[in-house]
């Protein structure tokens, strides 16, 4: 067991988190991670209604009685989801841990705090992490440039971002982006983090609810097989490299605007990839860390071997500092 401020804060055994992922963070996966001693997270907006979210949490609780979190990603939208209703559903479901992401979580803090909910805010820069601490979040997940999805616009990788966050924050924080095994956990701990968040690694697990073809593609792919789309729109996203994402990059680099790629990046197309396994059907998110993923184990095995390997690596490295007998 690796005990940190983060595990103590949330009452979990291991500092390994399965972050919220659209279309991926469902009951089976979250429950498997939590049952193994990590923190599994159900993605609120994957559920079509707040009532469905409550049912999904109830379904997860038939598989584990250990802590489970819910991700609530808050983004500006022409037709925004009913965030207040999802927030109420989180409370009604008895959830005690929420991962917020996207916009400033401050408007949601009063209600979460009033119901004893711990808030972990995911952000991509030290300045946003400091702001999150100031508005009262309990912990931060700091997301490096290596990550899947939205890495922000600063392009700061974890090797610099993690110790910079450690210098600036007083609350616990975990590192996200580029983590797949115990070597990464050991490195994150050495750099000052209190644990790791792994997305792509848990996508490629037995319990992950996405198509087997997508999982097999992650195993086959290397760290070179991603694209950064929306760079010219200052809304960078890291996605799998396929014919669709490459076309999006080409159109935008040639001066195209968002309407020129709207149909290519439609969320329904990405969901089709995950559900039906046609990896060329649309845009789907994956991180650089796919280059370190070579199998499709159970989520529980991922948690256990990550912690075991981290301990072994740290013990081996520490042995280098032992005095040599003369």
TrEMBL record:
The keyword Oxidoreductase applies. Pfam families: NMO. Keywords: Flavoprotein, FMN, Monooxygenase, Oxidoreductase. SUPFAM superfamilies: Inosine monophosphate dehydrogenase (IMPDH) (SSF51412). It comes from the Bacteria. The keyword Iron-sulfur does not apply. GO terms for molecular function: nitronate monooxygenase activity. InterPro entries: Aldolase_TIM (IPR013785), NMO (IPR004136). This is Nitronate monooxygenase. It comes from Agromyces rhizosphaerae.
């Amino acid at each position: 067991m690796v005990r940190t401020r983060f595990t103590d804060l949330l009452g979990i055994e291991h500092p390994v988190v399965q972050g919220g992922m659209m279309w991926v963070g469902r009951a089976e996966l979250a429950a498997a991670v939590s049952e193994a001693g990590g923190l599994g997270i159900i993605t609120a907006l994957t559920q079509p209604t707040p009532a469905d979210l409550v049912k999904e949490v109830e379904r997860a609780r038939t598989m584990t009685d250990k802590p489970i979190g819910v991700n609530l990603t808050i983004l500006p939208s022409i037709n925004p989801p009913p965030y207040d209703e999802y927030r109420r559903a989180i409370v009604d479901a008895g959830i005690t841990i929420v991962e917020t992401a996207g916009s400033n979580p401050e408007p949601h803090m009063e209600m979460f705090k009033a119901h004893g909910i711990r808030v972990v805010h995911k952000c991509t820069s030290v300045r946003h992490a400091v702001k999150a601490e100031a508005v009262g979040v309990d912990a931060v997940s700091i997301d490096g440039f290596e990550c899947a999805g939205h890495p922000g616009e600063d392009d700061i990788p974890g090797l610099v971002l993690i110790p910079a966050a450690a210098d600036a924050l007083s609350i616990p924080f975990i590192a996200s982006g580029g983590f797949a095994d115990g070597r990464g956990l050991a490195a994150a701990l050495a750099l000052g983090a209190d644990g790791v968040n792994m997305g792509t690694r848990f996508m490629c697990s037995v319990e992950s609810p996405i198509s087997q073809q997508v999982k097999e593609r992650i195993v086959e792919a290397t760290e070179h097989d991603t694209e950064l789309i929306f760079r010219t729109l200052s809304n960078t996203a890291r996605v799998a490299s396929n014919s669709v994402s490459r076309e999006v990059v080409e159109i935008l680099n040639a001066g195209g605007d968002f309407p020129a790629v709207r149909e290519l990046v439609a969320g329904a197309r990405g969901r089709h990839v995950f559900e039906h396994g046609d990896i060329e059907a649309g845009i789907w998110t994956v991180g650089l860390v796919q280059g370190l993923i070579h199998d499709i184990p159970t989520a529980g095995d991922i948690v256990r071997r990550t912690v075991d390997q981290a301990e072994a690596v740290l013990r081996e490295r520490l042995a280098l500092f032992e005095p040599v007998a003369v």
